[in-house]
Automatic annotation (TrEMBL):
This is SDR family oxidoreductase. Pfam families: adh_short_C2 (PF13561). It comes from Paenibacillus thalictri. It comes from the Bacteria. Belongs to the short-chain dehydrogenases/reductases (SDR) family.
């Protein structure tokens, strides 16, 4: 129960990763501030799981691209539950687009959802953590902060921005006892469809490009978040943890770990 007594704020709770995070961190004793676009409808089972686990959860539907709404959410949560101890920024919008033909509105949408919201959440949560002299911020980023997707350039740009935000925040907030770290998530099941590309073969047979031939799961992500949110990782600040099973190390298709014939 490494997170007993801690209040964790999770953005985009309705996503598959958000749902897994709620269950995993509830098992660690956390209470929650969750931002849900569905006002909790899509996470009804997760909220029930929290109740059984004895975890409290406040549900909001704030526009995280408006500072007043983010700040208001954390202020109201503080009145009802307590100050936020851990922020998990979990937004991950992917929209297919190419540099030469990208619609401006689509580019802005991806940047706002993935990067601007990270900045405003950091600002609102960070000032509270800094005043208390403790806290942890975890950004769920992507290996595509470093490697182009070949299918959604704005996604890569937004995740690169999140990574640099994390470095700057770690430098600033670290002086106040706040740890800021990034998890660079590798391919999960279904990413071959999400990142289907006419100019890149990166996601062709992508599972076998992971040395162990197993994609990352959201449970793996949640385990990593649980570690970063706990006091035992208090000296880890400004780290970028690549959670991809070695996917980005791949460079020769004929060396892929494919199943043996007949398996």
């Amino acid at each position: 129960m490494r997170l007993r007594g801690k209040i964790v704020c999770i953005t985009d709770a309705d996503s598959a990763s958000g749902k897994t995070l709620i269950r995993r961190l509830a098992d660690e004793g956390a209470d929650f501030i969750v931002n849900s676009a569905s006002a909790g409808v899509s996470i009804d089972e997760e909220l029930a799981y929290c109740r059984v686990a004895g975890a409290q959860a406040l549900v909001f539907s704030a526009d995280l691209c408006r500072f007043t709404e983010v700040d208001g959410m954390l202020e109201e949560a503080e009145r009802q539950l307590g100050r936020v101890d851990v922020l998990v920024h979990n937004h991950n919008l992917i929209v297919p687009m190419q540099v030469e033909s990208c619609d401006e509105a689509a580019f802005v949408q991806v940047m706002n959802t993935n990067a601007k919201s990270a900045f405003l959440c950091t600002q609102a949560a960070g000032k509270r953590m800094a005043a208390a002299g403790s806290g942890s911020i975890v950004y769920v980023s992507s290996v595509h902060a470093h490697k182009p997707t070949g299918s959604s350039f704005a996604y890569s740009v937004s995740k690169s921005a999140v990574n640099m935000l994390a470095r700057e925040a770690a430098l600033e907030l670290g002086r106040c006892g706040v740890n800021v770290n990034t998890i660079e998530l590798g391919p999960v099941e279904g990413d071959d469809t999400l990142f289907s590309s006419e100019v890149s073969s990166l996601y062709e047979s992508y599972i076998y490009k992971v040395p162990g031939a197993k994609p990352v799961t959201y449970r793996d992500l949640a385990d990593c978040v649980a570690y970063l949110a706990a006091d035992s990782s208090r000296y880890l600040n400004g780290a970028e943890l690549r959670l991809d099973g070695g996917f980005l190390l791949h460079y020769m298709d004929h060396k892929m770990k494919r199943p043996e014939a007949g398996q």
